[in-house]
């Protein structure tokens, strides 16, 4: 009798622990805090400390809230589920690049949002990118700062989709946003400042890579926007609307290796104080204008502007 009672108690405890773990894994909203502990349940009253613990606790499609100012990772954060990660207003939610990218997304079919985050490198740590995505997922970056990386701020390979809004991308050694081989991006209301280069849409395979840039300031660096194709069948399209591109070596670049097509289309924009207002190279490269831009005080230009009528 005593043995049966003990066994029932053991089974009850095991079931309770299993249900508790399942409940934790199904949190709609997980919480992080500077005084949290990863042994906690990641709830508001018992927050966790680091992003990997919160990603384990949150349900697919849920949210992770950073409650106060702190760094919330110790290595690359790999996101493998649909989730929104945000710092609450007034908090500085930092994700640091250490020994690689700060955030990596390799899975397909995810919907991920990053809001009000600061993504920077830990000095002398082997940091690379801010956000690195190879999975065919949908990523939104809003109201964030991506700065001082030794490589690209946002680096996307493949058919992933990226939206960048009201974000500052500055002082990164590589490109602010680098898109390759089928990636697409919508960049709006963003400041791209003093990076090695601005925004690149590149096809090195027979894919179509596209970017739309609107209401954005691009200042400093080697390239403003660049549509580049290196292979037959490759297509790149880069659309610039209501933007300012200034103080770069070349503001509008359309480049092919005499194969494929590369289009830069610009409307309602200010192109000023650049070494080259535009730079075209190779058969199949086009810089198209609606004729409502201000191109002023640039040193030189290579290629021709192709007019397009308003519809």
| Secondary structure: helix percent | under 10%
CATH architecture: 3 Solenoid
The total of beta strands comes to 32
Average pLDDT figure: 92
What is the topology?
Blueprint: H1 2-25, E1 27-32, H2 51-57, E2 58-66, E3 70-71, E4 77-78, E5 83-87, E6 93-97, E7 103-105, E8 111-115, E9 117-121, E10 131-133, E11 138-142, E12 145-147, E13 154-157, E14 161-165, E15 168-170, E16 175-180, E17 184-188, E18 191-193, E19 197-203, E20 208-214, E21 217-219, E22 223-229, E23 235-241, E24 244-246, E25 250-256, E26 261-267, E27 270-272, E28 276-281, E29 285-289, E30 294-296, E31 300-302, E32 305-307
Characterise the protein shown here.
The protein has 311 residues and is mainly beta. The N terminus is likely disordered. Helix content is 10%, strand content 48%.
Q: Would you summarize the structure shown here?
A:
This protein has 311 residues and is mainly beta. The chain contains 2 helices and 32 strands. It has a 12-stranded parallel beta sheet. The chain has a 10-stranded parallel beta sheet with strand order 3-6-9-12-15-18-21-24-27-30, with no helix packed on it.
